[in-house]
Amino acid sequence: MSTSPKSTPPANRMMYAVIGVLMAVLLIGAGSFMWLSGQEGGAGGIGGPFQLVNGDGKPVTDQDFRGKYMLVYFGYTYCPDVCPTTLNAVADAMDKLGSAAAKVRPVFITVDPKRDTPAVIKQYAAAFTPSLIGLTGTPEEIAKVAKEYRVYYAEHRTGPGPDDYTMDHSSILYLVGPDGRFIAPIAADKSGEEIATSLKKLIG
Q1: Which phi and psi (to 5°) does residue 82 adopt?
Q2: Residue 5: per-residue pLDDT
Q3: pTM
Q4: Fewest 10 Å CB contacts: which of 37, 86, 169, 190?
Q5: CATH number of 40-203
C-alpha cells in the first residue's frame, strides 16, 4: 500500500502565513519609503487624465478639478484600518487649513471597483468630510488611473466566497496642482496637523 506525503501541520501553515504577511508588509513599506524618498519635491510622469464616476454615477474627469489642488488617495471602502485612518487625518487637515481649504479638493479613488459602486463610495466619502469626493469606475478605468499614479494594488483572497478578499495597496497622498501637474507626495501615515502643515508649505 502506497503512502501519501504528510501534510503540513496547521501550526506550521499558520507560521508560514504570518511570515508571508510580514514579508509583504515590509516590502510594501520599503517600496513606499523608496518611492517617497526618490520623488519628494515633485516629479514628472506621475498622474494624468482620467475619466471615472462619482457617487451619483456622473462622469468626472481630471479636467473638472482644474483651478484647485487635488489631494488624491487610493484605497477601498472595505479597508479595515489604513484607509479610514488616513481619510480621518485628511478630514482633520481640511479643518486645520482654515480658509486655505477652499483651494484643496480631497479625492478618494477606489481600487476595489467590484464592491465600491457609486452609492457605496458616496456614503463612505460623506462619512469623513463633505469636501471629499469619492470616485469609482470600471476595473479597466481604475487600472489606468492607478498606473498613471504608480499605485500598487492587488486582490488578496481570504476565502471561497465572492467577497472573501481584501485589497493590498500602496498608501500615499498625491498633491496635484491647479494645472493638473503632480507636485509632491505626502506620507499617508501623518496626522491631520502634519498633513495640513505640509499642504500650507506646498500650496502657499
Answers
A1: -60, -50
A2: 39
A3: 0.80
A4: 37
A5: 3.40.30.10
